[in-house]
Design goal:
8 helices, Arp2/3 complex 21 kDa subunit ARPC3, single chain, mainly alpha
C-alpha cells in the first residue's frame, strides 16, 4: 500500500491487530446476515451475500478482506448455520462440498481480487468500482459454475442453472456498489 489511507477501513480506523480482528469478526457477521436476507427479485429471490463479499474486499483490502471471508467459511465449516439455506439444506463441510461450494471458494478469490483493486484506488470512482465489482462477480460465477458442473455433471446446463437466474440480481448489486463505495469515499474525505 502506498499510504495508510488507501482503504476505507484505514480512513475509519487506524491499522493494528485489534482493528483487524474486530473488522474480520464484524465482516463475517455481515456475511452471515447477508446470506440470510432473501430479497424478492426476478427471476429468483436474491441474497446480498455477493454484495457483502465484494464490498468487504474493497473496504478491507486483499489481505483482511480475504481473511474475513476465510473466517466466515471456517464458521460454516465447523457447523454454524451461516450460509444461505442452512441449516435446512445441511451444515458444515457436507454443505460446503455440495452444489454451492464453488461459489463459496469464489468468495475468497473475489474478495482478494477486489481488495487488490481497491488498494489501487478502484473503489473511488463509479466506473472503476463497477468494473471491479463485475470482475469479482465473474470470479464468483466462474468458480461456482465449474464446481456445480463437477457436482451435478457437465452434461447438465450449468450456466442455465448456476448463472442465468442470478444475472439481474448481480447487475443490481454491482450498480449498488458503484454508487455506495465512491459515495463512502466522498463522505470520509470530508470527515
Amino acid at each position: 500500500m502506498t499510504s495508510n489511507t488507501t482503504l476505507l477501513a484505514d480512513r475509519l480506523w487506524s491499522q493494528g491487530l485489534a482493528r483487524n480482528v474486530t473488522l474480520a469478526i464484524i465482516g463475517s457477521l455481515a456475511l452471515w446476515v447477508s446470506a440470510k436476507l432473501h430479497v424478492p427479485f426476478y427471476p429468483v429471490p436474491m441474497t446480498m451475500q455477493t454484495f457483502a463479499v465484494l464490498v468487504i474486499g474493497m473496504a478491507f483490502g486483499w489481505r483482511l478482506g480475504g481473511a474475513t471471508v476465510l473466517l466466515y467459511l471456517a464458521e460454516g465449516a465447523v457447523g454454524l448455520p451461516v450460509f444461505s439455506g442452512t441449516p435446512e439444506r445441511g451444515i458444515g463441510l457436507a454443505y460446503m462440498a455440495g452444489p454451492t461450494g464453488g461459489y463459496l471458494v469464489g468468495f475468497v478469490v473475489a474478495a482478494v481480487v477486489t481488495g487488490f483493486l481497491a488498494e489501487h484506488k478502484w473503489d473511488r470512482h463509479v466506473w472503476t468500482t463497477l468494473l471491479a465489482m463485475s470482475v469479482g462477480t465473474a470470479i464468483i460465477f466462474a468458480f461456482g459454475t465449474l464446481w456445480l458442473g463437477a457436482v451435478i455433471g457437465f452434461d447438465k446446463d450449468v450456466i442455465q442453472l448456476g448463472v442465468t437466474p442470478f444475472l439481474l440480481g448481480a447487475a443490481f448489486k454491482i450498480a449498488l456498489a458503484g454508487a455506495v463505495l465512491p459515495m463512502a469515499w466522498r463522505f470520509v474525505k470530508r470527515g
